[in-house]
Amino acid sequence: MFKRLPGDETRNLVSTTPDTAVVFRPAVVQTPAIITIVIFAWRCLAGLVRLLVVHPVAVSCVAAVVLLWRLFGWPAVLVAFVVLTSSLAGWFTADRASFRRWISWRMLAFWRRFWIYWRHWQPVMVVSGLGRHLKGRDYLPRLVRVECDSWADRVTVRMLSGQAVKDWSDRIEHLAHGFGSTSCRVAVERAGRLTLTFPRRDPLAVPIPAVPIPETASVGPVEIGMCEDGSPYRLKVHGTHVLIAGATGAGKGSYLWSTVRGLLPAMAAGLVELWALDPKRMELSYGRALFGPRYAAPPAECADLLEAAVKVMQERADRYAGLRRSHTPTVDDPFVLMLVDEVAFLTAYQSDKGLRQRITSALATLTTQGRAVGVGVMAALQDPRKEVMNIRNLFPDKIALRLDESEQVDMVLGDGARDRGAMADQISPDPARGAGIGYVRLEADPDPVRVRAAFVSDSDIRAMVAEFAGAGEGR
Length: 475
Ligand SMILES: Nc1ncnc2c1ncn2[C@@H]1O[C@H](COP(=O)(O)OP(=O)(O)OP(=O)(O)O)[C@@H](O)[C@H]1O
Fold this sequence. Notes:
By secondary structure, this protein is an alpha/beta fold. 39% of the residues lie in helices and 18% in strands.
């Protein structure tokens, strides 16, 4: 209140409590002018030093221009400008990647810091509730740094003392829309500091054609699509188990088929065996010839095939006991990948109780003991609720495609995944825009990453069958 009143007006301010004769008159202390001047000068100096530290290049450029002009006049500035722009043009032509890294993205970050983040910082913080207005003063989180790359802005912020990461992750929609982005991810940089990621464009907006079949035999990680920063998405299949959850039409099939595609050379070399359970008969049956005798559709046959995989696993475990602790794929001991489409058909929705128990216990045995001996399970599932898939936590790696309800996101990816930006319930149901898009938690990073699997079309599968059916058999 006092801040808004100029000088002596405060002295005349008088207030009384209603119905009493008590009068309040503020005591006004005169501040000597010298103190005001010293404080003002100190703030100017601190501002200058901060400007120099935060924007050393920009400040040096301005200083150089002023110095050149003063010492040698405007022609010197013109010559310097021409020399500089032609050297930059030469650099751009010779090595675009390094030019982008050192010049383009930095200039873009400088511009976006000023034009997007600095300009909108106060209103967005106050409206979203992340800033505080106390006793006439605004307390705002500090905008520390803005970095850009080809697809996103990464904004480092210092939280207000006493704020929690959840305060921010609860407001990702306010932040995204406030700063003109479609989404926002929150990651902890270090104590008190967060990195907010705001995508500027979406490389996953259009379907990705099937990844070319690798030339060399490898058990992975298998390249099956693209991450949202445009880098290849490689899925680890050997030494883990993968659960893919997504509503009907979310594109679970493209994860299964892209994985098969990436493993075909290894299968032909005898390093991988692909086993398939296809209770719906709508997905894996299309490339059935690739699986040879290791394909089953009726639940009873699925149970037999699962138990056969358990036998392989136990036989290996007996042989490895005391000699080795991990599996290296060889022709004698190939990596066995059990692909299961719509696993709930075999577990929750199976009316035959005996079969259901056999299948569930075989799956639980494989997922708890199969990793170390080279037997993996990759299962697709529509409904991730516990009563439908009570062994979902036995899968170390999970992928959340389009889901019907927001609560299902944390069921698949673990607590807090949605708060950290895994908005799987908001993926578009339009197949062209949303099918195959999902969120994963990569091994090295607890924050969810948005990915899209490549679309393996029917003609791709036919070509795969024509080239690889029967390959790797009879070894
Ligand atoms: N990666 C992808 N990119 C683009 N479009 C895709 C992708 N995957 C699937 N689609 C499209 O989405 C449709 C549904 O895909 P798919 O059958 O794989 O979904 P699903 O999750 O297996 O569904 P359901 O559980 O009902 O079998 C496909 O017909 C295809 O047109």
